Amino acid sequence: MSTFAVLNPATEQQVRAVAGTTAEEADAAIGRAVAAQRAWREVSPGDRAGLLRSFAAQVDAHREELAQLEVANSGHPVGAARWEAGQVRDVLQYYAAAPERQAGRQIPVAGGIDVTFCEPIGVVGLIVPWNFPMPILSWGMAPALAAGNAVIAKPAEMTPLTALRIGELALGAGLPEGVFQVLPGKGSVVGQRLVDHPAVGKIVFTGSTEVGRQIMAGCAQHVKRLTLELGGKSANIVFADADIEKAAATAPYAVFDNAGQDCCARSRILVQRSVLDRFMELLEPAVQGVKVGDPALAETEMGPLISASHRESVAAYVPENAPVAIRGSAPDGPGWWFPPTVLAPVGLDSPAYTQEIFGPVVTVTPFDDEAEAIGLANDTPYGLSGSIWTGSVGRAIRVARAVQAGNLSVNSHSSVRYWTPFGGFKQSGLGRELGPDALDAFTETKNVFIATAD
Ligand code: TAP
After folding, report:
1. Residue 334 CB coordination number (10 Å)
2. Cα(247)–Cα(97) distance, rounded to whole angstroms?
């Protein structure tokens, strides 16, 4: 068994060494999950709901511990980490209500009746990225368990600590052994095994579009069910008739939250030309006001990037001669820091404008009218998120309908809530998570005709 070091991105120090799961150990875990699921699906809906509520209570009781682990492992500001741990509790509570409400249908047919059942898929593999280790784990874990599946989670190699602790809390809450397992280790070993193993009936993958494509090809071999949540390059569209002060004040948080390591980051600001100068004047103090520093401090709004190599990849989008219009601050010394950075003007073919940077770098591009704004917003292979700022209800609805993205906000910089559906258009993914219908993705519909003729 080999171990790997988990590092603190704010100090570059080791937090812990973690044993990496081998392919053989992954196979053994899948075997345990198959056996555990046979019993889990027979647990009555009320008892399954009760166990999920106990799991939520365990998470709630350990919220501060989980938050502190995330600060150390991921460099998330402690306020954000507390919210993330709270989200795991909330998502578990929300889906704890599902088993008792999961019902099939009765369909009138000639010669009998037809009933449908929602059957669990079996074993579900969750492959989780490093940017939001807790929320993204919970989005797959909670509805999959509620639907009667066993779940195996593979956290990102760099950020396994909160998932491992949540696995222990599940056992503490009384979930039977094998129903929820966490296997830390490499994507190319453990993640790949979940994709390739025929006993895993569904994969939920959140990560890069590049790896998502490989996972999709792997799942195709088994016609395996798949949810993909992939990259983004979302637009923040500001029309001249909007509340420009509010749009500029919130634009930094729409892209620099989690140091820009957010699939929903609005990393292309599109501003109507007639208000561009005013918007830039207001954006400057807003960007410079973002508090970047020690993630353990309550006032910190932005922490470091996740790793040295990721910082290198972000920095490559801001070479010496880059058109830096505004630059915020970042600490000196150890830690993988990068200051909030606004690039303008940028060419529509420049990598900073076209590629997902996944760091605190945003571009500002002017447009003349609504049609041009929609054209620019849609001129990307991605379609995950975005914002529209306007004082006109009609325009808000027209533009929201025209932008090809799964999660939009009007006059707000955030659109993700666990009780509303979430997912991407185009190369941002396949399928929807969250919201009241999430269990559909973790069940198969079975249709049974019952003849009534004697
Ligand atoms: P990836 O490199 O794609 O990694 C995501 C997960 O896949 C990690 O757990 C990784 O394991 C694993 N993995 C890597 N290669 C694999 C393989 N061959 N088979 C199975 N699993 C494999 O992404 P990332 O860099 O962690 O995350 C950033 C990307 O995720 C961005 O593009 C971002 O937009 C996207 N993202 C999307 C969303 C939504 S909801 N749409 C949310 C967050 C992030 P290792 O840790 O060992 O590499």
Report:
1. 13
2. 37
